[in-house]
Amino acid sequence: MTNLNHCQTQDTQDPLRPLRELFTLPEGVIYLDGNSLGALPKATAARVAQAVQAEWGEGLIRSWNTAGWIDLPQRVGDQIAALIGAQPGEVVATDSTSVNLYKVLHAAILIAASAVNTRAGGLKDLKKPRFVLSERSNFPTDLYIAQSLCQQHGLTLKLVEPHEISAALTDEVAVLMLTHVNYRTGAMHNMAALTAQAHAVGTLAVWDLAHSAGAVRVDLTTSQADFAVGCGYKYLNGGPGAPAFVWVHPRHANAFEQPLSGWLGHAAPFAFTPDYQPAPGIARYLCGTPPILSLTALQCGLDVFSAAQALAPNQDVIAALRAKSLALTDLFIALVERRCAGHGLELVTPREHALRGSQVSFALETGGYAVMQALIHRGVIGDFRRGDGDTHRDILRFGFTPLYVGFEDAWHAVEYLKQVLESREWQRPEFNQQQAVT
Ligand SMILES: Cc1ncc(COP(=O)(O)O)c(C=O)c1O
To answer: Do the beta carbons of residue 283 and residue 74 sit within 8 Å?
Structure first.
């Protein structure tokens, strides 16, 4: 039976263990919230200070050319492309996930509409797509953005449970919009299979990779997805509010709309012409001036993946990270179910490896928020997501970033959780006061 000794041995034998040293992790903290905000890479502070002092302070405006600021969104995009099965030149780091989703969903809706018009060729009885299809427990910002676009385009947002998606995919769906790994449950969709099903009925597939990029294998090219967006501040460790990213399949390369037609997405921004001409390819998804300091910090987060590759030059680094993440989450699930039995925790994350991402979620009927607050007080940082009181229950989330979380961390986290539940210390008033950010 697994004990603390086993966990310590697993850490000693872990080839990825040295990567932990690349992060600043506070003493006495076990950080299981990298699925929400990644930890701080040690290189970030000095690199951002250098960008401030040398590039901005000394270089001033010249740094747009001399420090390569102007193409930083593309260079950071290329680093991200390597983690999501895309090619160099296909990704840019820009704006937030919400804003990028607005751009790609708008483009996908227009492509779907024009495909129907072309196919119709005067036929009256061809069914017009009426829906954007998504999952009821998709991240709210995705649903809010989709609601707004549906209103603008006279479509309806249709929300279903995960097991109902296949049946709901008909030729009346313009766009299937899903988050690859669900933010609440950690359940992972089969991107290739759902994209193929969507294409079979003439529907486009838009994927949100917020909880996938840097955590699980993503293969956008092989999956034939149409568009993808994702976060820079979760598993990519780019810092709070880091720029997000956006990808489009090359088959749409020069035929997709940019609804936010800003000057830096123009084909020739410095020609200063009064009319908008979109840049070729993904560069048109840039809008305003790139946030250089934030992009610099994001680059430091991405450099950690290059360091991981350097540790094992002949290995598939994503496969190694994924194997560690699955070992960590398997261990955590087994320990919680054994050590915390009888306290009402119910696993909501699928056990099957192919069906889950890098987080573990447990539902708890009452007191979930307070339990998490008490756990955080003991130094184990996870988070809490409220249910809708209907089909979705309150959950405790624990994210396992294989770059810096170890097996001993998983052991101690479960021991603290057990103590919090057994002592009922979560009932103390200070743990029951709701804070602004949960
Ligand atoms: C699936 C998903 N999409 C989008 C977001 C947030 O996007 P933004 O960076 O626009 O706040 C989150 C945040 O947690 C998320 O989980």
So the answer is: yes
Note the helical H segments in 312-349.
Answer: 317-339
For 250-307, how does the pLDDT look when each residue is reduced to its tens digit (9 = 90+)? 999 899 999 999 999 999 999 999 999 999 999 999 999 999 999 999 999 999 999 9
Distance 213 CA to ligand 1 centre (A): 12
pTM score over 0.90: yes
Spatial CB neighbours of 151, under 8 Å, sequence gap ≥ 6 = none
Q: Please report the pLDDT score of residue 95 as a whole number.
A: 98
CATH class of 62-301: alpha beta
pLDDT at 44 over 70: yes
The angle subtended at Cα 302 by Cα 296 and Cα 305, nearest 5°, is: 155
| Ligand 1 pocket residue status of 91, Cβ below 6 Å | no
Domain map (residue ranges) of the chain: 4-31+317-432, 62-301
Residues recognised as catalytic: 139, 208, 233-234, 397
Q: What is the DSSP string of 415-428?
A: HHHHHHHHHTGGGS
Distance CA 161, CA 169 (A): 13
CATH annotation of 4-31+317-432: 3.90.1150.10
Average pLDDT, the chain: 95
User: For ligand 1, what atom is nearest to the CA of residue 97?
Assistant: 10
Q: Mean pLDDT throughout 104-129?
A: 80
Q: What are phi and psi of 407, to 5 degrees?
A: -70, -35
173-199 average pLDDT score = 98
Residue where the block lists tokens 């263990």: 17
* pLDDT tens, residue by residue, 389-422: 666 788 999 999 999 999 999 999 999 999 999 9
**435 alpha carbon to ligand 1 midpoint, in Å?**
20
Q: Is the CB of 98 under 6 A from ligand 1?
A: yes
